[in-house]
Amino acid sequence: MQLTRHTDYGIRILIYLALLPKEDKASIDTISALYDISRNNVNKIVHQLGKAKVIETRRGKGGGFFLDQHPENINLGDVVMLLENTLEVIDCENQKCRILPACSFKGIINEASTAFIDVLRKYTLDDLIKSSKQDFTTIFNLSF
């Protein structure tokens, strides 16, 4: 299974936000430049995370976005499920597969996908940053 870039970028954005001092906010331009991601992609991800109340967004002067929850309350499995359009590895229905009535491979793949998400659900955003916080702050040139 491979996650889309959309989800990869979403996780990267959340890591950055988790490391920001509480009073700071990020901007579309900052994230776009930091990760070399198009503004359009960042905007879509921020909008999606904001709608799900993972982050809070503020418009206008002094605006930006920041985590709406503590990193230990942001579950990685939930984030992946939010950002991925589908976790379907194969599409037997639209391919008009001739062996579909007899094949059990799709069931096995679905079981593997469920196990994948179950493992991710054991971890939070805090788990991603706590062991490498100093390295991340150096990479992002943040000071606390």
UniProtKB/TrEMBL annotation:
Pfam families to which the protein is assigned, alphabetical: Rrf2
Top-level lineage group: Bacteria
UniProt protein name: Transcriptional regulator
Keyword presence, Amino-acid biosynthesis: no
SUPFAM superfamilies linked: Winged helix' DNA-binding domain
InterPro entries reported for this sequence: Tscrpt_reg_Rrf2, WH-like_DNA-bd_sf, WH_DNA-bd_sf
Keyword Protein biosynthesis: no
Keywords: DNA-binding
Residue ranges of coiled coil: none
